[in-house]
Structure formats: C-alpha cells, structure tokens
Specification:
The complex is a heterodimer.
Chain A: H1 3-12, H2 19-41, H3 69-73, E1 79-80, E2 83-84
Antiparallel strand pairs in A: 1-2
Chain B: H1 9-18, H2 23-41, E1 44-47, H3 51-63, E2 74-78, H4 105-112, E3 116-121, E4 141-142, E5 145-149, H5 155-163, E6 168-173, H6 179-185, E7 188-191, E8 211-216, H7 219-229, E9 254-257, H8 268-283, E10 287-290, H9 299-314, H10 332-343, H11 346-358, H12 364-388, E11 391-395, H13 411-415, H14 422-427, E12 431-441, E13 444-453, H15 459-470
Parallel strand pairs in B: 2-3, 2-6, 9-10, 9-11
Antiparallel strand pairs in B: 1-3, 4-5, 6-8, 7-8, 7-12, 11-13, 12-13
Classes of the chains: A mainly alpha, B alpha/beta.
Chain lengths: 90, 472
C-alpha cells in the first residue's frame, strides 16, 4: 500500500484528507494490514463465507407510522418550502 | 437521604410504592451526584431538561396503579440510542446537532415501563474504540482512578453507574463495548444474544454484530432491564422470534475454560485473580472443564476485516445532506468530502478506509470472504464446546483499566483489548462481565472482571451463575 492507494480509497469513501492525514493513515493502515494478514493465510478448508440466513418477509401493505414531520425537516442543513435542498446532481 | 450505594431496582421500587421517597426525590438524588462528579469524569454528555416532566408522569403511575418495576427508575442512555426530540450524536462531530425523530425500540420499551431517562452518556465515536478516547467530546475518566480510561465504547454508561450517576444504563456491544468498560469500572455489563434485543434505533456500526446491552451494579438489576427490552421487533428483520433457540436443560451447569487461550498477554495479577475465581466457582460446586477453541485466536484479526467492511457501508449515510454536520462546497461531491472529512474523527476515517480497502476488487475474496469463513469456524468451535459444557469462562480483559493516552497512538494495541470479548459477537452468543475483585496499581484499587458466555438464548444461565458468584 502506498500514498496513492490511500488517496484513491479516500476518494471512493468521499473523505477529504490533508497531506499529513494521508501520511498518518498510510502508516496506520500498514500496521493494521500486517496484523490482519493472518486471515489471508489461514486455511479454512471448504467452509463457506456465507452465514446461514433465513428470509424474513412481511406483507406488502401500507401501515401508517407516526412521525413528527417538523422534527425531521428541522434537521435539514438546507431547505426551501419545507423540502430538502440539494446541490445540482447532473 | 437515599442511600444510592446500596440501592437496587427492587428496593427503589418498594420504596416508591410505599412512598418512602418520590420519583422526583430519587431523580434529584442522582442529579446531585452528577452535579458533583460529572464535570471531572465526563460520563454524561448531556443531562436532559425534561426530567421533571418524566418524574411527574412516573409518579402518577404509582397513584393510578399502572406502575411497573421500572417506573421512576433513573436510567442513563448511551449516545448512539435514539430518543425522540433529543440530540443523539454517537460521540461524533458529524451528528453534533442531530435530533432524533423517533424512539429506538429499546427506548420505547423502557418509556412504556415508566423509566426516567436522566441523559445521554459519552462513548467512542460511533462506538469505535475501547477507551472513549475516540469521542469527539473528550475522554470519560475512570471513577476508580481519574488518570485511567473507563473503557469503551460504552465507557460513559459504565462510569455513570460506577460514580452513582444513574441506577442502570443502556449501552451497545459490537465486540465488547458493554463488557470491557464494565470490567474497567467494576460494574456488571451484559451483551445479549444477537437478535434478542431489537437494533431498531441504534446507530448502526457492524450490523451483523451490534446489539443493545445493559449495565448495572448487580445481576438482578441487569436481568430486570433485559427482561423489559428483549423480544421480537418487526422493525428489525434480524430480531429473533421467541423460542427460536432450543434450550438444553442443565442440572448443574458445567463451566468450560479455554486454558490454551489464556497463555499470552494476560496481566499477572489478572491471571491470579482468574485462578482464584475458578477456585471460588469450584467451592460453589461447579465442575470446571478445560476446553479447546482452536480458531478463537483468529477472532480479533477477522473482526477487524468484517467490522470495517460493514462500517464503510453503514456510515455512507452521513453525507452532510439530510442531517448532521454540513460544510459548504462548490458542488455536491465537495460537500460530501468536506462534511465527512471534517465530521469524522481519526479512528472512524481509519475504519472506513480499511473497510473500503477490504471490499475493493481483488481484495474481497482474500480478506472479506476469508474473514467470514473464519467467523463460521469460530462459531463452530463454540457449538462444539457447548455440547460438553454449559458456560464458558474467561477474564473480560487482559488487565485493569489502562492509562489515558497509553495506547492512543497504536490502533492494533487498542484492537487487542477485544481479545476475550469479541468472539461472543462473532458467534452471536450472550455474554456477561461480572466484577471479580480489585488489584492495586500506584496506590489505587482498580476493578477486574470475569466473563461468562452461554449458548444462544441462554441469558438465564449467565444470570444464574452470576447471582451465585455475587453471594461470595
């Protein structure tokens, strides 16, 4: 792993980092990856990586839930006419 | 004057019922302690301003006969559990001003029972950490020695119980976050079976491992609260229906000890305390058996692949757009990058990046899939062990509370704190940390703890052995 990898991960994760932070993260990541390396090397035989899961279904019907609209909308960092305002996407 | 040190839920309930003190007087007694001790210890991030309203409601239930055993009981709640209308910051700057728009299921349940919530407690940011040093709002100091950490991530809740700032507390546990700080603070910490308590309204960290837990002074208090908060919830599709796990009937539980796992890294005094614990249990008539858990040594390294992977996905929702910390930028991408860059602390960024890495093309099989296969091997180890024994005993931690700043620059050292507690989350098993005595360090008496693990759905076995151990 090098500084370019840290930059591309930060880009993927949408996190802005300063140059100092990148250097520090690189050294932390190297240490952690060295520690978890044992996982790569462990022989797991034919054990599957999946959990044993069961489907949980519910009826496809509308049920009203009580929400305080104001409590939700007052969390918006930016709003107009009670709607969430976002920057243009396209 | 109410004797808070000796107070239990049962005693408080009797006194409230008889009118020996009122709900308000009880809450005021705790508020007095908080006022005196919290400025130094930083267990509470906020003491709520609606306590008077809550106690009045609770008091009415004693007059109209609808009081439950939790009515009027003062609770502290970890800052990652949603309480409608109150800030829930998860110890993070990115949610500094976020007000919850609904109650978590566990909160709904204790509110329905008439509990009084005094405030929200400090924690490592998004529950990532073992010392509360990762909180954006400062460390919670250990009430037994203020130079030391209270543990984490539910360190605020455990310190709060240890300082006498609430009768019981709620926390969450993803790898030991109720048990490790309970051990450091000399209180009881329960991590229930995965899915037995609803995750609805808990800020998600590692969704396949997270569970809400209970912290208290003694087993009975913890059991009482657990009985109120457990149960299937349609709002959490991973919550399990009653009777999901079959119960094996044990006449006299046999306790397994994985001696091979206790050879490395254990503090000498902790080992001594643990050996004494075994003797005490034998004195109580328990049979102790040596057991093998061959893959448990891989628990921490595989945990630190699986959890960051889940974190990188779960924390994608904090983008500065719909709620939380927002920093202006030229375009949408800049808003995301700046809000997340400034809003998240060091450890959170570290884990998001690590999770992004282990899930990326070319590493997914080598890391993430492999870690999940190991997780199955660990679960199989426990299943096999529980064919021979009914409970598994280890220390909760490798030693007593460490000093503030001692491990802060070494993430791997911090991660190793989970060595005994993490496996219960990997396998979804219930586990409890119980105080097992003290050790003296630099003139201070520091608490130590032991941990019992039980098969899925067998919290009853944990409470039973815990109560017997408490009598000694």
């Amino acid at each position: 792993m090098d500084i370019k990898d840290v930059e591309s991960l930060a880009k993927l994760a949408r996190i802005e980092l300063s140059e100092e932070e990148k250097i520090e993260l690189l050294s932390d990541m190297k240490g952690i990856l060295e520690y978890v390396k044992v996982v790569e090397k462990t022989d797991v035989g034919n054990i599957a990586p999946e959990h044993s899961l069961t489907n949980v279904w519910r009826e496809d019907k509308i049920e009203s839930r009580e929400f305080d609209r104001e409590l939700i909308t007052e969390q918006f960092p930016d709003a107009r006419d009670g709607f969430l305002k976002v920057k243009k996407i396209l | 004057m109410i004797d808070l040190k000796k107070l239990t839920i049962e005693k408080a309930h009797e006194s409230l019922k008889k009118g020996e003190f009122t709900c308000k007087e009880l809450a005021d007694a705790y508020l007095e302690v908080i006022k005196k001790k919290n400025p130094e210890l930083n267990a509470y991030l906020e003491v709520f301003d609606d306590i008077l309203l809550q106690v009045e409601k609770a008091q009415k239930r004693f007059t109209n006969g609808t009081a439950t055993v939790l009515t009027g009981i003062p609770f502290a709640v970890k800052d990652n559990i949603l309480i409608e209308g109150h800030i829930c910051s998860s110890g993070s700057k990115i949610l500094e001003n976020y007000k919850a728009s609904y109650d978590a299921t566990v909160i709904k349940k204790i509110k329905n029972a008439g509990a009084v919530i005094l405030g929200r407690t400090n924690m490592d940011e998004f529950a990532m950490g073992v010392s509360t040093e990762n909180s954006a709002y400062g460390v919670t100091k250990n009430p037994h020695d203020t130079k030391r950490v209270s543990g984490g991530s539910s360190g605020g809740s455990t310190a709060c119980i240890a300082m006498g700032g609430a009768l019981v507390a709620l926390g969450t546990d993803t790898a030991g976050s109720c048990r490790q700080p309970a051990s450091f603070c000399g209180v009881v910490g329960l991590k229930p079976t995965y899915g037995i308590v609803s995750r609805n309204g808990l800020t998600a960290m590692g969704s396949s491992l997270d569970v809400a837990g209970v912290i208290g002074k003694n087993i009975l208090d913890v059991q009482t609260v657990f009985d109120f908060i457990k149960g299937h919830d349609e709002m959490d599709s991973t919550s399990i229906p009653d009777g999901f796990y079959k119960k094996k009937i044990a006449k006299k539980p046999v306790i397994g000890v994985p001696k091979h796992f206790l050879k490395e890294g254990l503090d000498e005094k902790m080992l001594l305390n643990f050996q004494e614990t075994i003797k005490k249990l034998e004195f109580l008539g328990y049979v102790i058996k040596d057991i093998e858990l061959p893959h448990v040594k891989y628990s921490v390294p595989s945990y630190y692949i699986i959890t960051p992977a889940e974190i990188s996905a779960n924390l994608a929702r904090f983008d500065g757009i719909r709620y939380g910390h927002n920093i202006e930028g030229e375009n949408l991408m800049e808003v995301y990058r700046k809000s997340r860059g400034k809003g998240f602390g060091k450890e959170v960024r570290r884990r998001i990046l690590l999770g992004t890495y282990v899930l990326s093309h070319g590493y997914h099989d080598a890391y993430y899939n492999k870690a999940n296969a190991i997780r199955n091997l660990i679960a199989n180890d426990y299943n096999k062990a529980f064919e021979k024994v009914d409970l598994i005993l280890t220390p909760t931690t490798t030693g007593p509370a460490f000093k503030i700043g001692e491990k802060v620059n070494d993430p791997v050292k911090m991660y190793l704190e989970d060595i005994f507690t993490g496996p219960a989350n990997m396998a979804g098993l219930p586990a409890i940390s119980i105080p097992s005595g003290f050790t003296e360090e630099e003139g201070k008496q520091l608490p130590l703890g032991i941990q019992f693990m039980a098969p899925h759905g067998r919290e009853d076995l944990l409470f039973e052995v815990g109560k017997k151990f408490e009598t000694l």
